[in-house]
Amino acid sequence: MVLLQEDRGFDLVGKYDQDAINGFDSQLINQIFRLLEPEKAETVLDAMAGDGNLAHGLYQYCVTHKIDCPKLVVLEYSQVQTKFASNKLAQANAEVIWGDVLTMTSRDSHIRIPDNSFDRVMIKSSNHEIPRSYQLELYRSIYRVLKPGGLFINLGMLFDDPQERDELREIARVKDTYAGMDDLAKNRHFLTREELYGWLTTSGFVNVKCEQAFNYRINSSIVAQQYFSEEQRLQADLEHQAAQVRAYRMRLNGRIQFDRNVSLMLCPGEITTARKPLV
Ligand SMILES: C[S@@+](CC[C@H](N)C(=O)[O-])C[C@H]1O[C@@H](n2cnc3c(N)ncnc32)[C@H](O)[C@@H]1O
Fold first, then answer.
1. Which of 5, 94, 116, 137 has the smallest number of Cβ neighbours within 10 A?
2. pLDDT digits (tens, 9 = 90+) for 116-153
3. Given this model, what pLDDT does residue 7 score?
4. What is the CA radius of gyration of the chain?
5. Is any atom of ligand 1 closer than 6 Å to the C-beta of 102?
6. For the domain with range 8-160+188-215+269-275, which CATH number is right: 3.20.20.150, 3.30.43.10, 3.40.50.150, 1.20.1270.10?
7. Ligand 1 centroid, distance to 101 Cα (angstroms)
8. Is any atom of ligand 1 closer than 6 Å to the C-beta of 50?
9. What is the helix (H) or strand (E) element at residue 60, kind and residue range?
10. Mean pLDDT across the stretch 85-96?
């Protein structure tokens, strides 16, 4: 099945700093690279890659640690972000594909990535952009392109409490609407651990495990600056924080803190790994 998403969202956002929005530091990102063990991999896919910052980080990690960098492939749905990735990765000799992760197919040449292509697939902060009805297809697609014995590493939000998840969904809907990301306002799906581990297992993955739990640290002023136009920034920021006021369970659990005109939202995240069996 092919998902025809609207392109507007990440074409419209243009240049933005995903890690600054989420409050990620280099220690967290380096943990992905440690788990990935690039010295043991020949081919790595950065899927749903945005501007290619994760693949670029891996390239730099390899340079710093004097490791031969594996062949890097990045795949991204937005044409604008794909162009940013091509520029960012010019030195890294990476292959940049404007494509759909659900089919692992290029959107211009229509060439499909063959089965068993990669030793590693990594996804950072993106799986919540795939609608619920396509989530299983996402992990099946990743499984297909991994080599037997290959590793999938996902860094993303992961909830134990479905009520907190539903509340974040409402907050994100307000932010996405003001940012003009209508497709995401309709289709985003934040996952519970039960859902992610269940879908990975149904796809055939084994050894599904939490490698590191952490908190996203989302500062409302950074969200406002990165996503909202100057003309509507104040109004959008207020509506975004008003949606946070309504997130009763998240507030009860200390996940949203207000300080003067700014809020800090702490959302549960996890680096999860899952392996494709050898046979
Ligand atoms: C929140 S951004 C994260 C980008 C990047 N991984 C990072 O951490 O900076 C999610 C990205 O997933 C891309 N995306 C959404 N649906 C996709 C699909 N079906 N196939 C490939 N990429 C997709 C979006 O265009 C967007 O660039």
1. 116
2. 999 999 999 999 999 999 999 999 999 999 999 999 99
3. 54
4. 18
5. yes
6. 3.40.50.150
7. 9
8. yes
9. helix 53-64
10. 97
